[in-house]
Design brief:
Blueprint (H helix, E strand, L loop, with lengths): L10 H13 L6 H11 L4 E4 L6 H24 L17 E4 L3 H17 L6 E4 L5 H9 L4 E4 L1 H8 L4 H4 L5 E4 L2 H4 L3 H16 L4 E6 L5 H9 L11 E4 L6 E5 L19 H10 L3 E4 L3 H14 L7 E4 L5 H13 L4 E4 L14 E5 L5 H8 L10 E6 L4 H15 L12 H13 L5 H8 L10 H13 L14 E2 L5 E2 L3 H10 L8 E6 L4 E6 H4 L7 E4 L2 E9 L2 E6 L19 H15 L6 H5 L1 H10 L7 E9 L2 E7 L4 H16 L6 E5 L4 E5 L5 H6 L8 H8 L2 H16 L13 H18 L4 H14 L2 H12 L2 E6 L8 H10 L6 H13 L6 E6 L28 E3 L1
Parallel strand pairs: 1-6, 1-7, 2-4, 2-5, 3-4, 5-6, 8-13, 9-11, 9-12, 10-11, 12-13, 16-20, 21-25
Antiparallel strand pairs: 14-15, 16-17, 18-19, 19-20, 21-22, 22-24, 23-24, 23-27, 25-26
Helix pairs in contact: 1-3, 2-3, 6-9, 9-16, 15-21, 16-18, 16-27, 24-26, 24-30, 27-28, 27-29, 31-32
Length: about 900
């Protein structure tokens, strides 16, 4: 890139910008001016501001001011009038890259950026390039890219695959990464880091700016985006905080009556009348749900309650067709749709018309997520954000009250960046080999400038190089894995056109269940559902999708053909994906609210609403102190129950349940069924478990944690499943050409075979090691589990023998009942269970164990012989550990 002389913004440029702001009734904020001045000095940085407070224009208008200044300077050099800033000229080459995490945001972003360019008469072109971009625009961009390009990480990687990548980005001045907090802790974030490293190598003077709305670890986020220099020192950068505080008001709908024994989903749509009343009073509203299935359910419930609402109510989630999503977004802006039921597909966005009301169905599970969604209300500087939470069960009221306190305390979740995902590095090296090639020494220095790969060893790089050149030692005999060749000058390049095509089709880190297109018999696209759902359908079956009733006709070429039918009944598709666990920060706030309730302090309408529930809990058992772990024990006709309540979130509890089942099984042969929720877990066994003996033996010890967790959860099988994603990212398997995609079963068979081959013949394969590590950290949260056990180590364990289940334990019993096969409906079973639980019961008898005083004798050595075989514990509802 040619060296660019840094110039402060000219008076003409600043005047033009201020005039445009004034025409809209705006005044630049101090933090926006700070960014513009820093950019003019050649600095990079991260802008942290609440949604709707102007951070988009803070970042975008910095290069715009630079462009205006260069135009005015050129005009003076030619002796033309000062108003040359308004003349049009030939469009400039690519100067600004705007990265967005969602292709659905690209269109809105493009319009917002174009608006400023046209108003200021700057001769720049602004376009987007994503998977939704038309072939005509793609063809035009192959010969000439716009001055500013809005794109996604995947599309940027595709551009870097071009052999002329060096000349393509020759004039690039700036990269702006929008919603960096959404990318930070994902492989897509690491992909952005690698792409930035390549762009900095091509353009040494490149400036990088990130935008983040809600994040706890801002300094680390900024350092990750900036990368490090050749000495491993974080590049200089500026952290700019928005100076416009956003007031966030959090409210919850409280039902008129509250069962003393709530269970997950028991409120369901009971609050629908009050929801509709609130929506009716609002000029515009977004109703957020946590899952696509829940989104479909609530949309249908609104329309069923009042069919007239169909005229102004819409549904929006990521599985709908692009045309329907864009229609909903446009309708919300123009006022054609007053109410939109949506998932996280509308969490993010720029220049999106603010709505009067935001509702959140169910617990947000995290403080940052609640703030992000609240920001869609009052999405303008100076206006407060307001969100109304709609609980699906009683204890979510506690979570709402806890979230409000966490917001007031500034306790927002941190997102940790990834460390050396080698599957992604293998993919990126093929990208670089296509984009002009690389040498070993140069690429090692380049990737080490990223935060993710700053600690990459030469041995790890050599292993990945061997993997992409000949498939490694195990796959050396198979030519299809020899993707990269080394020429006579030692440059790694791709020469096979078939390899190049398959790589471009395989780029990215978003891996999900195989999708089946849903089309009407006339060919209109409605969206996609997962293969696992369609596999259960027979011709004539009805299901609800895209807000309408459909009848399944046939499946052909990975397309489900359907026809519209009348009525509002049928199954609702379920999409694969982990259920969101309670975050660490929100879990701590929940424990604090329970402590207030234990001491008799109930603040806010939510806590008063659950007064009777908590009173029943205290009467039959106890509400644990913050330095106490509550364990309840009871016996029913189903067996012996152990309920444990760490209040640390679902994923941690899954690991803890399996760990406890495994460790207890070392003391006596026993079979457990276990289930978990965000508050605790249940172990159900036919006979009484030796709990006291296990506590004395170190049931909650941190010693040998990794060994015990690995054995308790059949980690090899979990690693096999995780390897599917890694194999696809690394390019070991190919999902198929457009229109000829492989089925999920075919992909699973391919990855399973490779996993078995590596396990048998290459057990030290680094991708296997990565699969095990990702299982422990992403699925089991072992690091967080260790911190929880360390907290428990300083706590007392209070064991309470209760006569009947308590309000804390009842939801866990219902979850196990869901998993049982029965001719009795779930509602009937729960009603019978509730009647039994409501019978009078004596207060439980308690005993206290001090963890610090226990003798840790369960595991003296990791390789110590066992008297009992390791349990085959698996995660999930109603799974058994023997």
């Amino acid at each position: 890139m040619p060296r660019t002389r840094r110039l402060p913004a000219s008076a003409d440029a600043v005047h033009a910008l201020e005039a445009w702001f004034a025409s809209r009734g705006w005044e630049p904020f101090a933090f926006q001016r700070e960014v513009w001045a820093a950019y003019a000095r050649g600095e990079s940085g991260l802008i942290h501001a609440a949604t709707g407070t102007g951070k988009t224009y803070a970042a975008w208008l910095a290069p715009v001011l630079e462009g205006l200044t260069e135009l005015t300077d050129a005009a003076r050099g030619r002796g033309t009038v000062r108003r040359t800033v308004r003349r049009r000229a030939e469009a400039a080459p690519l100067r600004v890259l705007w990265l967005t995490p969602l292709k659905a945001l690209a269109a809105d972003t493009e319009l917002a950026l174009q608006d400023a360019v046209e108003a200021l008469r700057l001769p720049w072109t602004v376009e987007s390039r994503t998977g939704d971009t038309s072939q005509a625009r793609r063809a035009r961009q192959r010969s000439q890219l716009p001055t500013a390009l809005v794109t996604t990480p995947e599309s940027l990687s595709l551009l870097l695959c071009r052999a002329d990548a060096a000349s393509l980005f020759r004039d690039l001045r700036c990269v702006i990464v929008d919603e960096w907090h959404e990318l930070l802790s994902t492989k897509r974030g690491a992909q952005v880091e690698l792409c930035l490293a390549r762009l900095r190598a091509l353009c040494p003077a490149l400036r990088t700016w990130g935008l983040s709305a809600t994040l706890g670890n801002l300094e680390q986020a900024a350092a990750t985006l900036m990368g490090v220099d050749a000495q491993g020192v974080t590049r200089p950068h500026r952290l700019v905080r928005g100076l416009v505080p956003k007031t966030v008001e959090v409210e919850a709908l409280v039902p008129d009556t509250m069962e003393r024994f709530p269970w997950a989903g028991h409120l369901n749509t009971r609050l629908l009348p009050e929801v509709m009343r609130r929506l009716s009073q609002a000029g515009s509203a977004i109703m957020f749900t946590n899952t696509r299935s829940q989104c479909e359910l609530w949309f249908q419930s609104l329309i069923a309650a009042d069919p007239d609402w169909f005229a102004f109510t819409a549904i929006h989630h990521g599985s709908l067709s692009r045309r329907q999503r864009e229609d909903v977004e446009d309708g919300l802006k123009t006022g054609r749709y007053r109410v939109v039921v949506a998932t996280s597909s509308l969490d993010l966005g720029v220049d999106f018309s603010p709505v009067d009301l935001v509702l959140q169905v169910g617990s947000p599970k995290g403080v940052a997520r609640l703030l992000q969604r609240a920001g869609r209300s009052g999405h303008a500087p100076g206006r407060p954000s307001r969100i109304v939470c709609v609980p699906t069960h009683a204890f979510e009221l506690v979570e709402v009250a806890a979230a409000r306190d966490a917001i007031a305390a500034g306790a927002i979740e941190a997102r940790e960046p990834l460390d050396r995902p080698l599957d992604l590095l293998a993919q990126h090296l093929v990208t670089l080999a296509l984009g002009g090639g690389f040498t070993r020494e140069a690429v090692l220095a380049e990737v080490r400038t990223t935060h993710a790969y700053r600690l990459l060893t030469e041995a790890e790089l050599d292993w990945v190089l061997a993997f992409v050149t000949h498939g490694g030692d195990t796959l050396r005999a198979y030519p299809e894995y020899a993707k990269v060749v080394v020429d006579e000058q030692g440059v790694h390049v791709v020469t096979d056109r078939r390899v190049a095509l398959r790589h471009r089709l395989n780029i990215g880190t978003i891996v999900s269940d195989a999708s089946i297109a849903v089309r009407t018999l006339r060919g209109r696209s409605l969206g996609t559902v997962e293969e696992s759902f369609v596999a259960r359908l027979s011709p004539g079956d009805r299901f609800m999708f895209a807000g309408q009733a459909l009848e399944f006709v046939r499946l052909r070429d990975l397309t489900a053909f359907v026809k519209k039918v009348k009525g509002a009944s049928g199954a609702i598709p379920r999409w694969a994906g982990a259920r969101m666990p309670l975050s660490t920060e929100l879990a701590a706030a929940v424990r604090a609210k329970l402590e207030e309730a234990r001491t008799g302090t109930l603040t806010g309408p939510e806590m008063h609403a659950v007064r009777e529930v908590l009173a029943t809990q205290a009467e039959r058992s106890v509400i644990p102190r913050p330095d106490e772990l509550l364990v309840e024990r009871t016996e029913t006709r189903d067996g012996h129950h152990l309920f444990v309540y760490p209040f640390e979130g679902r994923l941690v509890h899954e690991g803890l349940a399996a760990l406890c089942a495994y460790r207890i099984a070392q003391l006596a042969p026993i079979t457990f069924t276990f289930t978990c929720n965000d508050y605790g877990f249940e172990l159900l066994s036919p006979e009484r478990a030796p709990l006291e003996e296990a506590l004395e033996a170190g049931l909650f010890s941190t010693q040998h944690l990794l060994h015990d967790v690995t054995n308790s959860l059949n980690a090899a099988e979990l690693a096999r499943r995780q390897f599917r994603e890694i194999a696809r990212v690394a390019g070991l398997v190919f999902a198929g050409y457009p229109g000829q995609a492989k089925s999920l079963r075919q992909v699973q068979a391919s990855t399973g075979l490779l996993f078995d081959v590596f396990m048998q013949y290459d057990p030290d394969n680094l991708l296997l090691a990565q699969a095990r590590r990702e299982v422990l950290e992403r699925q089991l949260e072992v690091s967080r589990l260790g911190r929880v056990l360390a907290r428990i180590a300083t706590s007392d364990v209070r064991v309470v023998d209760v006569e009947r289940p308590t309000p804390f334990g009842f939801p866990l019993m219902v979850d196990i009942a869901r998993a049982k096969l029965s001719t009795e409906s779930l509602a009937a079973r729960v009603k019978r269970m509730t009647v039994a639980a409501e019978r009078p019961a004596r207060s439980g008898s308690a005993s206290v164990f001090r963890i610090g005083d226990t003798v840790e004798r369960l595991m003296t050595r990791p390789d110590a012989p066992r008297a009992v075989a390791a349990p085959d514990a698996r995660r999930g509802r109603g799974r058994r550990a023997r």
